[in-house]
Amino acid sequence: MQTPTVSTSMAATPTTTRATAPSPAKPFALPRQCGNKLSSAGNRRGSAGVAASAKKKNPWLDPFDDGADEEFDYQGVFSGGKQEEDPRPPEDPDNPYGFLRFPMGYNPELDSLASKVRGDVRRACCVVSGGVYENVLFFPVVQMLRDRYPGVLIDIVANARGKQVYEMCKNVRYANVYDPDDDWPEPAEYTHQLGVMKNRYYDLVLSTRVGGLGHALFLFMSSARDKVGYVYPDVNSVGAGLFLDEMFKAPTANLSDGGYHMYKEMLEWIGRPRNNVPQQPTPPLRVSISKKLRAYVEDKYNRAGVEKGKFVVVHGIASDSVANMTSRGDKDCLLPLEHWAEIVKGISSEGDKGLKPLFVIPHERHREDVEEIVGDDANILFITTPGQLTCLINDSAGVVATNTAAVQLANARDKPCVALFSSAEKEKLFLPYVEDKASCTVITSATGKLIDIDVEAVKKAVNDFEPAPSFALVTK
């Protein structure tokens, strides 16, 4: 390929205006070449380069521009044939609406018009705000989606602590780690999570984060068909509803203040009557555990010195760890170790029952504190995930805990439970179904402070625990 040249004739000086002067011919724009062509730069800028230009080129403008490459094909990468395409749906010549034609390289996902009209959901994404407690109470929302839209694929977006909750839920396909509560996320994490949500073609995106315009834009950019979420109850929600198909105005800025029914508006919207389908009833809280996880936890608590069905789970030790599994709607929900040491005295380890208290600590640094206050012979277990806690509760004789996730998990598995609350108002807020649970005993503080709870009443309730029956296979 020959490099075009520019005439260097200076025959006449232009006397007309600049608008009428003919523009000089420009050489054909060529891409810059680098690499092994630098070694031959001096040869190409020899006499031929001087003859081609009256003015020597300034090498500082583009030191990597060595001119045209004789070995490069400028006609096009795919000039020799067609580009390979993705498989595409076949064209239907009998279709009265014409052929299905799509641009080259595109493989669209087809959905029937009837499915669009009915509002069916095949893929849903749930952005869950909060920690372990909030994610545990989100299980009825997931089950409502499965009951309303059988066969739906559900993905979860939550922080690292919330992601661990969904090892107990069989209805979730993917659980992605992303903190929706972070007001200033890292740009790389933000764009990555947004790209993941866009590439999965969700029909529905639900968000439990109480947000404003910024979070609404995040949901809008996911390109889902329906965007649903909570917004601020004040002026901070201005403009957010323009980017959401359905919005719920939260009672307060903290959604956890609603207690057990914190997602009531979302549950009613999912199960709403439409298209001759009646109102879907709200399912109760249920969790599942796998055999593999159960075997792992059984080996773990056996090493801690307790046997299956012969220990009582103690949960709710005062700690500043983020893994204490408390609710954001109840700040006063942890008891000091001194109170727990007095409570476990009611659990006899030498009597006929043979029960032992098992202290569940959220961090290893609390082990020495328990041994110092309760005793060196105390049974202590460090639990890392909510799934392990559920297996531990399932194999225990009962649970004594404050308003943490352990209370909800015990009631979900129908295990005997003694729940400690700072006030009767908190009890009605977080355990509205306690009247239907004969296995759950609630003890509240008369002063409105958990530290003033009646320890003797707690010890009496704990003494009613019986060892869980053990089953053995009888073979002939």
TrEMBL record:
Biased composition (Acidic residues): 63-73
Biased composition annotated in UniProt, kind: Low complexity: 1-27, 39-53
Superkingdom, natural source: Eukaryota
Residues that span the membrane, as ranges: none
InterPro entries per the UniProt record, alphabetical: PNSB1 (IPR044983)
A biological process from GO: photosynthetic electron transport in photosystem I
Basic and acidic residues: bias regions: 82-91
Region (Disordered): 1-96
GO CC, alphabetical: chloroplast; NAD(P)H dehydrogenase complex (plastoquinone)
Protein name as catalogued: Photosynthetic NDH subunit of subcomplex B 1, chloroplastic
Organism: Eleusine coracana subsp. coracana
